[in-house]
Structure formats: C-alpha cells, structure tokens
Amino acid sequence: MSYLDDNAREVVRPIKRLVEDEFLSRPGVIGVDIGEKYTGGRPTGRAAIVVYVCAKGPDHPQQIPAEVSGVPTDVVAESIVLHRARITRAADVRPVGVERHPVLRGGISIGPARSFRVVPPEVPTAGEYVIAGTLGAFVVTNDEPGKVLGLTTFHVGCVDDSWSVGDEFVHPSRVDGGIPGADQVAVLDRAALAGSVSAAGLRMGARPFRAEILDIGAVTGTARATIGSTVRKRGRTTELTYGVIASTDATLRLDFGDGLGVRTLRDQVRVHSSERFGDQGDSGAVLVDADNRVVGLYVAGSGSTGFANPIEPVLRQLDVELLTPGVPESRKPEPAA
Prior knowledge:
Layout: H1 6-24, E1 29-39, E2 42-53, E3 67-68, E4 71-77, E5 81-82, E6 85-88, E7 104-106, E8 108-112, E9 116-118, E10 127-135, E11 137-141, E12 148-152, H2 154-157, E13 168-170, E14 184-194, E15 197-204, E16 209-213, E17 217-218, E18 221-222, E19 230-235, E20 239-255, E21 262-272, E22 286-288, E23 293-302, E24 305-310, H3 311-318, E25 320-322
Parallel strand pairs: 2-4, 7-16, 18-23
Antiparallel strand pairs: 1-2, 1-20, 3-4, 5-23, 6-10, 8-10, 8-13, 9-10, 11-12, 11-25, 12-15, 13-14, 14-15, 16-17, 19-20, 19-22, 20-21, 21-24, 22-23, 23-24
C-alpha cells in the first residue's frame, strides 16, 4: 500500500472539512477520510476524499459527487462498529481459559460490574447485558497529583447515559467470568465523549499494577501518529496485532446505542493490517509505535481496518498524563472510594 505525502493531504484537508458534515448527513454515509483514489481496484496516485458507506452501488440512497472543487472522491463500502463485547447476563458464566492477572497491565480484559438494559434493534433480544473491553494503559491525573487511573474508552467505561462516577469495574470482565465485588479492581473516575475523543479513566483500587502492556512491555511516553509508521496493540480479544497508520483524518459516525445515539468522532487514526486488526472487546487498547510510545486509543474497526482516537486530545480532555516506569512500576495505591 502506498501513502500520500503531507503536501497532498494539506491540499485536500480543507476541502474535506468543508463537505464532510454534508456528506455525513446523507443516508448510508458513515465516514469521511483522506486517502488515495482507486479506480478499477488499482491506485491512481491521486489524493481523494474517501467516503465510507454502508452499501456501495447504483442503489445507494444518495449519490456522492465524483469530485469536489477538483478533488476526486472515492466511495468505499465499510461496516465500522465500536469494538466492545456484549453478551446477555443470562450467559454470564466464567469461560474456560480466561486470562486473570494478579498484577494488572495494559492489554487485558476489563468491564463494568453493572449490567445494562438493551433492546432491539441494537440487539436481537431485549434484556440485561454485560460489557467487556480492554484496559489500555495507566495515566496520572493533573488535578489530583498522584492519583492513577486505568485508561479505556467511553463506550466501555460508561456504556450509556446512566453512568456515574464510582461505577465499579472488574477484571476479568463479566463477559469473561469476572465477579462483582470479588474481582473489583477500579471505579469510574471521569470520562469524555466529544470531538475526537471517546475515553474514560478508572481509578485504580488495591490490585498492584505495572506501567506496561502485556506482550509489548513498558510504555515509554506518547507521540503523534505518523502516516506510514507501524503500530501494535494488545486487545482483550485479538491480543497482539500489527498494522500501519494510513490516515489521521478520518471522521466517523458511530452508534453508541440507546441513550447516546449516533455520535461523530473527528480526526481519527486509521490503521490498515494484512490480517484482522481488532474485534469486539478490543476497544480501550492503546496503539504503540516501534519505540513503545502510545499514539492512539483504539475504538472501532472493520476487519483489517482499525480506528483510534489520537492520544493527545484523550489525555487533554481527561486532564491526565501517561504513566511510565519513571514512577514505581508496581505499587498498591489506596483502595478506591
């Protein structure tokens, strides 16, 4: 795969921003991005406004113009969904071989202790459901020095509009057999769902933890996502996967479910992989570069394509900084209130 240089993106970016909201208002359109124009399945070398749609073809409800202000468009059929896992509470039994970690690290299963009422069409059958996602990394708060939070996404940490500070979290998640009370490791401390960010911070409890990511190692800091660079993530479901950053300009319309509805996330990092990059339960994993610097927070995907919040606005909106081994790597903080 070839990648557009920064100059080509700079030319397209203001035009893409000018039309993306109008495109997103059209039935079937779920995203707008910048990428290379393909014709007949082959790259043309031209920068294009990429439009993601639920279905592609002459029967699509609204036709996308072939070009905008001289910039070509490229319509791509995708099915982009939030990658949290969800099962009915009735099926809430401990699976065989579930990962349980006495010392917490990034890249492991986590989820709310409470269940959620979900109804069709979001799910096939109305009922109480439980959620699983990934604990991505650890951060330290700026407003309360020394307080350590576990980082995950809003749609794992809050799920719907009934969330509140103090909600309990378990490792492993209830989807993976975690038991409320006995397996509690954190409580919800803060969250953000706006702009380019779907994030939540979980105040860590008495379980010891390390500023590491399972199968990856110690995190060394943060960096901006760079197009063409290789990244890794360790998620609850697909575990360690690799990809290449293809864009930092993706705007997505994602369905956060009952009570929250469809929300728009802008300036998302798009990752391409030769295999499946993420799946249900991987939301909350962090993307790291070759130097183990965190560049993004994984939120959604479609097969070999993944999308992540850029890490800078995540940290800014939560008012936190990434925890690295510059502070003690394993400690037992005061139990969460």
